[in-house]
Amino acid sequence: MTVLDTDFVRAQFPAFQEAALDGQAFFENAGGSYTCRPVIDRLFRFYRQRKVQPYAPYEASRLGGEEMDQARARLAALMGVEAEEVSFGPSTSANTFVLAQAVRKWLAGTGGAVVVTNQDHEANSGVWRRLAEEGIEVREWRIDPETGHLDPAALGRLLEDGRVKLVCFPHCSNVVGEINPVTQICGMARAAGAFTCVDGVSYAPHGFPDMAALGADVYLFSAYKTYGPHQGIMVIRRAFGELLPAQGHWFNAGTLSKRFTPAGPDHAQIAACAGMADYIDDLHAHHFAPEPDATARNRAVHGLMRAQEVRLLQPLLDQLAARNDLRLIGPRQAESRAPTVAVALDGPAERVAAALAAKGIMAGGGDFYAGRPLEAMGVDLGRGVLRLSFVHYTSQAEVAKLMLALDEVLSA
């Protein structure tokens, strides 16, 4: 089996060559990843050469517009969707908010219901819960308070009466880490006559989605967590997107990629998003034989990333599970989860994060906008959790350094 070439990968990220970051092991990737070189190069070029209003006939403008279009088309090809099914916005929270306003108008007065979980980050929770203000029924799909697991059987019971029109859930939680069976859940919702909205923010850094395989109607993620600029990316399939009321300028209502973009997008950052596709293609070219299909390249690189993460994650999970002075949240098996690991401690997690920082470990403590799942699992929000998160560019030496630092800090 092909193994990820970590040296090659790290050479694609300028952060690893920065003197200011030398000796620092980065374990807060769930809050935002390092940016890959192709994204930085494209952003720099746009600001230097093409920072004008795009789509005019003069050369700088024409080239700027072409780069923006290229970003949408390249990402769409990776995910196996139409280019118009990809929308950009300032953040995933903003994209979800706009989408919720469209759903509010669509469902108001119809008797339709929405399902939301208490496993989600607040971005894919609060906006849907507020639909109740319009008389729309909001049903909560609840996690197991011990494990944080979302049981599909419990969703089945919520769908039985046929009134649910939208199911909103995460690909994986940013504190539980368990990878939810998206394909199964989307199939259940579809059979009950409901659409699906998947928050992929915490999963997409570990592999861009294959939309045909997942079957989701909406998939949301953040470019700044997938090695890119600070943009939110929303894939909305045409059947659902054209059913909802447009939220942008009236004259853009006929263009799916603009229907849910009420404000002008950041041109330079959209153009730079093509660098994420460059990076995936570079990884594929380095590790595999040529493959003309972009979605197939994405699948191969996705598998490469996940295999590396699973290999590095299991020893860390074993170490944490063996301790009796903390609570490891989520699955103990690396194959079942993303490498986003939250632990509840006897005291404030931020103090432990600060102690780790003194040992060259960059990690965070707090609630990470996941107050609902943490409360449901009985975690004291005043203490929060220590979150340790990594991605495929993390090295085995960095994980070993983290494990040693954890033993020293937690045993002190």
From TrEMBL:
GO molecular function list:
lyase activity
User: Which part of the chain is the Aminotransferase class V domain?
Assistant: 26-240, 305-402
TM segments?
A: none
What are the protein's UniProt keywords?
Lyase, Pyridoxal phosphate
Record bears the keyword Lyase: yes
Q: Which SUPFAM superfamilies match?
A: PLP-dependent transferases
This protein is called what?
Answer: Selenocysteine lyase/cysteine desulfurase
Q: What organism does the UniProt record list as the source?
A: Cereibacter changlensis
